[in-house]
Structures are given as C-alpha cells and as structure tokens.
Amino acid sequence: MRRYGKHTDEDDIRVRPSRRGTRPRTHTRPKHEDAAEGLVLTVDRGRLTCLVEGRTVTAMKARELGRKGVVVGDRVAVVGDLSGAKDTLARIVRVEERTSVLRRTADDNDPYERVIVANADQLAIVTALADPEPRPRLIDRCLVAAFDAGLEPLLVLTKSDLAPARPLLETYAPLGVRHVVTSREGLAEGAGAESVRALMRGQVTVCVGHSGVGKTTLVNALVPRRQRATGDVNAVTGRGRHTTTSALALPLPPSTTGEDGWVIDTPGVRSFGLNHIQLSRVIHAFPDLEEGAAQCPRGCSHNEPGCALDAWVADGHADAARLHSLRRLLGTRERREGD
User: Helix axis angle, 215-222 relative to 191-198, nearest 10°?
Assistant: First the structure.
C-alpha cells in the first residue's frame, strides 16, 4: 500500500473522473453583450415569434430567465440563430425594463394576475353598438385597468349601422375619453379604418373587447396584408365566438408622412377582473378632482360620507358629472360586468 507524507505530489493522486464531465460548475452567467434587440410579436406554446433586425425569428426563453414571463410587446435580447430560416431556434436571454404593463385577473376574487401585453401606449376598448349589445360595466373595467397601467384609453364603437352611438357616448362624455365610431360598411370600404388608424399613429395600441364585437375585423382593416380569422355572433346566446386565440402585434402601414405605429390584437374576453388594481391610483386620471381628493380623510374611498370631493365640486372646482363618473369607475369591483 502506498503511503503519502506531508509533502505529496498531487499529480500522483489518482482521481476517478466524474460522469458529469470535468468542467467546473460556476454561477457566473454570460452577459450576452453581443445579443441583438428584438420585439416579441406573439407567444404560442412556449415558442415566441420576435422581430429582430427586420426578420421574423422563432425563439424560446433561456433557462437563466427562470420563471420570468415574456409577453407580446416585450423588448428582449436574443442570441443564437437569428437568420429566421425554417427550423431554426434562437434564445431570449434578457427582458428589458417595461414602460407599461396591462394586466387582468379572471375575476375579482382571483389572486393571480395575467399580463396581457407590455410596453403599450394606448388601450383601444372595442365595443359593438349591437349584435352583441354593449356591456358598459366591461368598458368601465377596461378604463380602470387603462388608468392604473398609465395607458391612454380610446373607445372604438363598431357596427354603427345597427344602432346609434350617441346614447353610449353621452355616458362617457364626462371622462373626456377619445372615441371613434365605425360601421361594417365603412371598414370594408377602407374609410372607417383610416379614421381609426389616424388615432393610432406613432403609438403601440392594444385592442381589448369581448368576443363578437368586431375587434379582429377592425385589425384586419387596419392591416390589410395580414388577415386573421373572424367569426359570427351566436344566435342563441347573443355572444361572440372565440376565433383569436393568442395576442399578435402587427405594424400599421406607414402613412404619407412616414409616421407608423403598432396594433396588438388580443383574444376576446368574457370578463375583466380587477383584483390586482389599486383603486387609489384611479384618481390620478382625474386631475381636476385629484387636488380636491388631497383633502379627504386617510383611506377615503371617495364614495362615502365625509368625502372632500363633494365640497370640492360644490365650490365649482370640478363638474359634478366628472365626480359621478369617478365613483362609477371606483365601484366597478363591487358590480358584476353584466349588471
């Protein structure tokens, strides 16, 4: 038996090689400083389609991202095969800081929030004036989500050939929300699409609405070269059928001035839960009322006795219709969407 003293030559020691290889383990991750910038266009079962240097590239999330989610609209860093050729796959190694996040929950009791899109500038709430009937509570909820996320709301009313738009517009007039009214014939002829497109120039706009309101039909008119499948309203239930199954970002055709923009089509929603929303932030979308709210008692819901906003409006600092609209929006979580 060979014995070793204090001054052994370690080269003489026989070490059994590891079955996992001889490469030392390290927690140091590469910085990927040469990664290319990309924009996530759609997500489908773990595969992400990204726009990288003018090419459409299929990618997957790198292991080092862990459980960090990647959604449509994210600005990402991509490495690997960026040729965009068939059967090639790149890796997303980094998600850049988001400027905005639009979220929702399944209902008001669901603790798990779902990110719809990232880095949007504007939320287009698409609502049909008939077939199916408008759902004002869903519009209110979308407005609350837009104000909370810091997005500019845009009310898009479709199918004006079936019902007048004035009654619904009067409801939201005190909010000062921009709006546009379209008809099925106008979208088919192109004039209606141009009026909507003009309000989306230079911005990233995400379209939200329940099924059957003509949301995908609108997107097809805005971006004629990319046609998505559409469906009809169920004659029995009066509700739309789901045809869009995943969010998709599409570039708007450039205008004569060279100004462009993006529109993001999303699947139709049956509900829009607000469990994740801090209703105290909604007041920031009402600058004419926000100053008066500073005089409210701590924890004031702005819809209770002693609220300073009543005196603020009575003194002529703001319109009473604006306060009514604020309180209606703040009460959306207590009312069901179909009410």
Answer: 90
